[in-house]
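task queued by scheduler; priority normal; single chain, no ligands, no partner chains; default sampling; output format set to C-alpha cells
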Amino acid sequence: MSESMIAWSIYLVGALLLVLFGWRIAKPLSRYAQWLFAVSIAVLLFTPFSLNLENHPAAYAPALFVAVLNSVFLGIEAGLDAAVTLALIWLVALVLTLVLLLLTRKRQRGTPAQAAREPSV
C-alpha cells in the first residue's frame, strides 16, 4: 500500500469517527437538527476538490482545506472556487436530507389538539 493510500485511509477513518461523534453530540437535539448537523459535518469533511497540479492532474483534497489554504496563501479569489463548490454541495445535501426526513416522518393520528389531550402510556 502506498503512503498516500495510508494517509487517505487514516483521514477517512478519522473523518468518519468525527461524523459519528457529531451525531452523538447532537443526540439531545431534535431529529431534524441531529441529521442536519451530521450531514453538515460529513459534507465539510468529505467533499473533494481538484488541486489542479501540473504534474498530478488527478490530485484531490478536501474542499474545506483547499478553500482555507488557498485563501490564506494565494488570496481570497483563489479559495473562492473551492468555497463555492463546498457551499453548493452543502446546500444540495441539506435539501436532500430535509426531503428524506419529511418523507420518513411519523404521521400522527388525528389533529395535534387531539393528540395533546390524549394521555400517553
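post-processing summary
- The first strand starts at residue 48 and ends at 50.
- The CA atoms of residues 36 and 94 lie 6 Å apart.
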